Amino acid sequence: MTELRVYLPIEDLQPQFAAYMATPTRARGYPPFVGDHSLIIEVAPALAIHRVTDLALKAAPDLEPGILFTERHFGLLELHSSKRETVMAAGQAILTGINCKAEDQLKPQILFTDIIENLSDQHAVIYNRMREASMILPGQSLLLYEMAPALFAAMAANEAEKAAPDI
What we know:
By secondary structure, the protein is of the alpha+beta class. The chain is built from five helices and six strands.
C-alpha cells in the first residue's frame, strides 16, 4: 500500500521560487516558469513514486515533471503546468490511483522559526556557498523556517514571496 505523505498544490509560482525550482540538481527535469502551477507529491515506500509518475503523466500528458527523486524511504515528484486544471487533473488521477484523499497526507508541523537581522558578511559568504537560488547580502535579514515534512516549506516560501515580492 502507498502512503501519501505530502500532497501539495502550489498555485502561481513566484519569480524567486520558480528560479529555485529550476536550479539544476541530479533530480531536476523540466524547469518551471513564473506563474506556473505546481503539485508536489511525497509517498512511501520510495519506489511507489514511479507509479505516481505514471498515473500523472498518463492522465495529463502536457504536464512537465520538474523533480523525480527516490530516496531510501520516500519518493518525491514535482509536476507543473501553466494550466491549473491540468495539474489538478493529474493530482486527482494520482489520488484515485493510490486510493487516497488529499486529507490523508501528514499534517505539517513548524519545528523552528527565527529571523536573523543584519546578517554579517562572513555569515553571508558561508551561507551563499550552499545556495541554490538568490544570494543573501550582508546586512539583510534571513528568515529561518523549518517544517516537517520539509516539503511544506515549499508552499511557505512561495506564499512569503507573494506577500513580500520586492524582497
